[in-house]
Structures are given as C-alpha cells and as structure tokens.
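User: Some background: our group keeps a shared notebook of sequences we're curious about, and every so often someone picks one and asks for a predicted structure to add to the entry. Today it's my turn. The entry only has the sequence so far, pasted here. Could you supply the structure so I can complete it?
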Amino acid sequence: MLLTACQLAVAETVICSENQFACNGNCIDEKLKCNGILDCLDGSDETFKACYNTTCDQKDLYRCGYGGCLDVKLKCNGIPECWDKSDENKFECANETQIEDLFTALQRGCGPEYALRCDGKTCLKWSQICNGDRDCKDGTDESLELCAYGACPPNSFRCENGACINRKRFCNREIDCADGSDEIPDLCSKAHKPKDDGKILPSEIWSPSGCALTPVAGMHVADYFSDFSYRPDAVLPLKSVVSMTCDKDYEIYGTSIKKCDNYEWSSDFKCLRVCKQSSVERNIRFTTQCIQNMDLTDCKQNTLLFNTTILVNCAPGFQPAITASQLGRHVCNETGLWFTEEANPKCEAICGVKSIHHPGITPWTVSIFKRISTNEDSYDFKCSGTILSPYVVLTAEKCVVEHFGNNDIHTHFSVAEGNHNVSYRQLEEHGYNLHNISNIHIVTHRRSEKVALLTLVKPFKFGAKVRPICLDTSSTFNGQTVESRGDFSQYKKGQTLTVVKNGEYTLTHLVVNNQLSYDINGFVIPIADDIAKSEQIP
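Assistant: Of course. Here's the predicted structure to add to the notebook entry:
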C-alpha cells in the first residue's frame, strides 16, 4: 500500500507520555533530561532551552553552564564532560592562589574595589559583571567563562552565557541578557500559558521588543562594534547593528551589515551554499555555459552559488564521438557538490582536415625555435613539428638534443603555430602565436631510433587554422626497424609525411634528415601514453 505525504507525516509523529521528554523524533524518560548525557539522537535533551530551569543537588551534582546536572566528581578532572566545557572552567577549577592570580589579571591595574578593566581603561565593579548588560565593547564582562563561575542569587534567571538577571525580567518582552536568551520565543511561549481552550491567538505569539535572528546554515552573527558573537536564534534589542559572516563553503547574499529598526532587520540573513569551480571548466575539450536563477553567470569564478547549472558541450575544434550526443548538465547541490543530471559528451578533436577557407595552410604544422644563447632574447628556427593533441607536438629527436645526447633546457625552446622560419626577438613584434614548453620526452623504438615529444605549458586553441593530424593508434608495428631510407631533402627536419583518405590526413612518417624517415607506427604506444598524461586534470 502506498502512503501519501500527509499520511507519512502523521505516521512519523511521535507522541510522548507525561513522564517522557519529546526529542525531535523519539521519546526518552524525563529523568534522563539534563543529566549531562546526550540521550536524544539530536541532543535536544541537553540544551539551554531544555535545561535553563533545572535545579541540581549542590552536594552530589554540578550544574553545567547550559543547565545540565553532572556528577560533581567529574568536575575539574581535566576532561570536559559538559558539552559547553563549563565543568573545566578555569575560574571554577582554580585553587585559592590561582583564583587570586586570575582576579588580579582581570583587574589589570584597577583598584581593589574593581573587578575588571576593559578597553584598556574602563574599570568595572563586581555589580557590573555578569548582570546582563554588556559594559565592555568586546563583551568580556559578560563572557561565558567569567559568568559561569559562581551561583546566581535567589529569584534570578541565569542567561545562557551565565549572567544573572532578576527573575521578573525573564520574558518581559525587553532583552536583558546580553545574548538575548531571556527572550527566546520557545521558552517565553511556554512560560506564558495560553487560554483555557489551549489555543494561542496570533496576538499572543511571543514577540519580544527587538529583532529575532533565524538560524541559517553556515551563518555567524556578531555585534558590529564589539565583535561579540550572538547565538543563532538570539533576539537583539532595537537599534542593534550586527555584522554577518558565512563559513568558507558559503557566500553572503546581500550586505553583511544589518540593523534592527522598527522590529525588523534592514535586510535578510542569507548564507548561500557554493560549489568550487567545476573541473569541467579546466578541460580543454569542453565549452561551458552557467545559469543561475535564469541568468547567465561566469563559469570561471572560483565558486558558484547553490542551484547553478553548468551546461557542457564540445569546444570549438572538437566534435562528439556519438552524433546524437546530448549536452552535459551538472547542478550545484545543497551539499556544495556538483550533481550530474546528464553525463558530458565524449568529445574528440577534429583531426587531419584542411579548411576550404584556408587551402594554403597545413593546420597541424608548427615551427620550433631555439634561443641563440642564455644572454639573448633572439630565437632562430630549428625544426618543423606536428600537432598530435592540444598539448603534444612531435618532432625529430636531433632538433632538441645536442650532439652529446643531453636534452637542452626546455625553456630555451618555443613553438610557433604555423609554418615559419624567420628568426625573431622576444621583445619585438613578430606576429607569431608562441607556446612555451613544459617537458621534452625522448621516445625510443630501439637503441638508436628516437623521436621527441614536446609537452606545452598551455594548450593549442583548435579551429580552422590550428588542429591536430590524425594518428592511427589501432595499428600494430611488426617490423624490426622503423627506418625508411630515401631522398627527403624537400622536407624540413621534423616534418611529417601523411596519407589522405576521404579528405582526412593521417600521419605515417617523421622526417629525421635528408636521407631518413621513421615509420611512426613504431612509436604509437608511448605517444598515446604522453597524450593521455598531458590532458589529466588536477
């Protein structure tokens, strides 16, 4: 049998008996409430709201700051037992000598009739300490550590931060505790019983004289002038000015400074969940479009807001491996992670195709230049090269290795898009689209048959004038040698030979010198490995 949403809600409602405490979803024995142990799954049995009115046996029990009762033997044993750590309060646990030193440190030069110096100059008496009024700008006089020390006088209400106020000021619609805990709506609604019929009229719903904070995930609120932190559901006096911050995985929506005026905050408190920039954005095979609230937004931002959608398509110079490939779709969810609704298309580079608009250009050809010396910015043409992938260029080994067989420093080389042989100076206008090299890998078939693979720092941007040659990685090489002898004087060193079929050019040989070329099939496996490694996204 299927249940409707309403039936499910009724089925999950938990009704507790009079001698039980109602947690959010289950019931526990009333005696377990405020015993210093989290018996409710959500911990609601050990909160200030549940325990504020608790009385503990002073002989056998210690009262935690929030109101829970703890075995007095566990107090000051070096291990926090109260969740608010009030049982290890340094004032509570100090001996006579230590407490005197602590009080002297609080006075900071004030006379013996004073208890504390704040702001470097103002001296306060004990009657001004933990009385619910924040006299120090930084709230030192109303801190939990100081106020949790000692007991409140009879007929007092103990604020959540430990301060004491007259019982009559509890739920009087005026905020008297510095942290606003004397006007918490849940407590005050219970303290002021409803009419005999059990119904609470709208006018009787508790509304203290001030502005209430509503708990928001990732949000922190503090006094603008003193940085005193407020509880997430505190009620603050009129004219309060606060500053709002959000956790690192959230972002503030709107202004961070709010003012309580006419019982309302000047603007809403919102911390929006954010996702880190998607790794898709760094994949050269894709182009992306981001949408937030029906508007386009920049996908390259370090973080993007909750509910942002990323649409993924093949970048220019790439095409879907499957003709009917759909758009990739990812959504920033409430956990700060990208949820995939539609998988990304598998995009392959368009290879071996010459543009009809640029018939004189061989788009996979590049030119390799070498700096004349470490002290000059002049570069001379060295060899030709061939684009194999967005990051990898193929050329002859002798183009980048000196006669003694050692690799030249890769920073001495640069790759220019297109077929060029005119030297250039780095600081002069030359019109070349240049690429720096991050790595040079010499690939060997046998001991003496070698080719060079150059990995670029930044990838080529593919299009009609720049694209890779096709490489057949499915073929196997069974020959003993890759050498092909003949007259190759019409070609530049490092240039490649191709075959064309149905308008698509495929790489076959690499020209090593005027008399020698190598069958590229003998190097296909290590070439494919280098290409795969070059496109790995960190």
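Suggested note for the entry: The mean pLDDT is 85. Residues 196 and 204 are 13 Å apart (CA to CA).
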